[in-house]
Design a protein that fits this description.
The chain is of the alpha+beta class and about 130 residues long. The chain contains 4 helices and 6 strands. It has a two-stranded antiparallel ribbon. A two-stranded parallel sheet has the order 3-4. Strands 5-6 form a two-stranded antiparallel sheet. Strand 3 (about 35-40), helix 2 (about 50-65) and strand 4 (about 70-75) form a beta-alpha-beta unit.
Length: about 130
Amino acid sequence: MAISDQGATLARPLEAVPSERIDGYLRELFVDEAVSEVVFGVPKTLGGAIGFQAQRVLTRARALQESFPGVCFVEWDERFTTRVARSTMEVPRKGGRKKRRSSGKERVDHLAAAAMLQEYLDRRGTFAASR
């Protein structure tokens, strides 16, 4: 999970939330924060196709939209976000090789969510400026 600032310009990671806890987590988040939009990642294949996992995400997102009708759910291609997140966790070492700061999957997941949200915010700002 990630969230943006009030000006919707900067994303920051929150935490990794297991899918079985997502409804309750969102319910609490919506009470604590003024959330009007949820950007959710769709794990498309490298060719851009909707595979099995992506279909599961889309089905889950439709159910969440029904549970939270006042919130806009936006589909976003999440290809390469984990790779981007992992690259931010690497630090240079002697000899030009890189070492990971942390190997926890949860750490990567919430950083990937922040990278995806930041990409969405950046592109949305670009589109709004070009109108």
